[in-house]
Amino acid sequence: MSLLRTSILHLALLAGSYHAVAQSGRSLTASLENVRLTFALSAGGLPTYEVSYRQKPVIKSSRLGLKLAEGPGFEGPLVLAGSEVKNVDETWQPVLGEVKNIRSRYQQLTVHLRQPAAPGRRLDVVFRVFADGVGFRYEFPQQPSLKYFTVTDELTEFALPGDHKAFWIPGDYDTNEYPYTVSRLSEVDNAQLVKSSTAIAVRDAPDAQAVQTPLMLKSTDGLYVNIHEAAQVNYPAMQLHVDRPTARLKAQLVPDAVGTKAYLHAPDHTPWRTVMVSNKAADILASKLILNLNEPSKITDTGWIKPMKFVGVWWEMQIGKSTWSYANSADTLTAAGQLIPHGKHGANTANVKRYIDFAARHGIPGVLVEGWNVGWEDWFGNWKEGVFDFVTPYPDFNVPEIQQYAAAKGVKMIMHNETSGAATNYEQYLDTAYRFMNRYGYPAVKTGYVGRIIPRGEHHDGQWMANHYVRVAEMAARHRVMLDVHEPVRPTGLGRTYPNWLASEAGRGNEYSAFSDGNVPAHETILPFTRLIGGPMDYTPGIFKLRNYAPGSPERQVHTTLAKQLALYVTLYSPLQMAADLPENYEQHLDAFQFIKDVPVDWDDTRILEAEPGEYVTIARQQKGAASWFIGAITNENRRTATLDLSFLPKGRYTATIYADAADADWKTNPEAYRITRQTVQASSKLRLNLAPGGGAAISLVPAK
Fold first, then answer.
1. Architecture of the domain whose range is 5-292
2. What does the domain layout of the chain look like in residue ranges?
3. By C-alpha distance, which of 353, 364, 369 is closest to 405?
4. Which end of the chain is more exposed for a tag (fewer CB within 10 A), N or C?
5. How confident is residue 413, by pLDDT bands cut at 50, 70 and 90?
6. pTM exceeds 0.85 for this model
């Protein structure tokens, strides 16, 4: 990371007591451009805050505070012990990302509070006001009366001024893999959704009126509001309880196995609670507020971190063509007990070589293989700890032979470590597993946490697991391995601090088209406003065979057109992108596959050309270190025409290759119909794109020779 510009100005030191504030009606404020934050203590000594945008209320007076197990906490009454304001304006460069440079400009208000009576514990609330929103967190200074302590509840509230339109998934301690519901906040009721969900790790809903963050909202007067958190480290995830009559949201922390929320040791702090706001939907997608609230990279030498595309032995198992397990139900045993597989095991040497050949032939850098290691016969649903050892292959998977074959072809193998939820077991093998990756040249690993967590009673989104994911990222960094986590806590921008943590799943991905009713056409237009607010998503795009792909399930269908699958490589950002379909399906459409070959996974610039959650998204990105641009445009179930203004292009002429829906394309009836055209464009040009129902378009813009 390079710090280009820093300007920090200490403006004021405001000191006073609670009594002075209450009697005079004074409040403390911080603001930047159109966003204003106000802090106050109520007449009863309760800390509160408000947020406005262009003088419109975004968050009405809302409570702050925490309850502790060790006697009086910070629920109030509290008194004001002082405050400071400072301005910060700095620019930094991410190791990889959507833009080359990120500006972090904010006004910070630090409020010092203390208990008026013994033991007189102190709490700081730090607010950072950006031009596109607010972040705040609780900080616990070192003090004699607060050392080790336990948080039993967080009292943070977000009181909304109206019954906003919401894009939400149910509160669930163990999975984010739900379809989105679009409704008014007053209509949130997730009990039935949880019962009917096909999410892999689903548990009973702890609260029928709880929703997960990032929560995307739209007010009746046209404000777009996003509520999430940043830098979730050593603390459980925050869900939001919706008080339907008042539109008031209350923080609800994921508990541990004994019902406690967090164990802390002063000096310490919570994650940042974030509120992004704008009157333009595109501004929410362009915001870097979450990243700016995370700590700089802890990895000093980042030259080994290389974003990449990959294919893999994965989709064929999702659709039932092959299996993860070696000893599947069709296998037989000889009298001597020798296993005779019937050929359905996908991760066999010959099949893997076929994927390596395809990758090498088309310039795809990596190949992922799932189901390569012993244990898949007994991995799911048993809450069992010692399922995998992460180093022992099945007899038909020759690790040295595959490594040598891939190296000779210029292809890197990507490791897969499924834990079956047994995080304790994985931690025992961490160093061994990553040494194995180093020995056989695996630069990246995809981890998985399907099932109930061990330690038993812990949750995917609790404090223990939040720390586990960080420990894995740190171990991966020590071994120079890049990380893609599935079934994790939802991201909060930690890719800045651990840039080897390239991607996560943490949402309902393309895989649901293989074993369920799939994702509705609007799903991918909602994800950028929700799941991707916290960081890149391994959505596994690029399915070309969109119907009749699952043996025994002819009704299964991916709810997009082929052109939309291409567009997802631009609209759903990830520095680790999979071309998820089978090689033989790509071979039938090599002209369309060319876009997947060409599209980068790392960028110098990003422009949000148009966006509306649940309806459409069009994004343009400039290739890292090059003059080429790529555009992705997607729509929901409605046909639409997008007119793209190319004024963002630098001076010069560009060859635009347009991968678009055919005139008769439709996600239901004719999803694989597309057409490819070329034309010369420049900054003054406008492109008119006709997007089919459930469709999209992908464009490459290369400087004309």
1. Distorted Sandwich (2.70)
2. 5-292
3. 353
4. C
5. very high
6. yes
